[in-house]
Design brief:
Blueprint: H1 11-30, H2 48-56, H3 60-78
């Protein structure tokens, strides 16, 4: 197992996901099953589930507000 320092992402989980995805694709190809879908056929339209999730997501103004609030709290505690 590699280093636990991961910074901007979870390298171990990404590696696991990539390995499992490659394994799945290889199994599908070996069994002769067709892999459906392509980037050319992809759609920018959101599914109803994605629309509901997006409706609950934070927007840029909320992130800025939260960052300012945390900054103000840190300043208070430094005094």
């Amino acid at each position: 197992m590699g280093s636990k320092i991961q910074g901007e992402g979870d390298y171990e989980s990404a590696r696991h996901y990539n390995d499992e995805t490659k394994k799945f694709v290889d199994e599908q190809i070996k069994s002769g099953k067709e892999l459906k879908g392509s980037a050319a056929e992809a759609s920018d339209k959101l599914t109803p589930e994605e629309q509901r999730a997006l409706a609950r997501a934070k927007h840029g103004e909320q992130d800025e507000r939260d960052a300012k609030m945390l900054s103000d709290l840190e300043k208070k505690h430094q005094r």
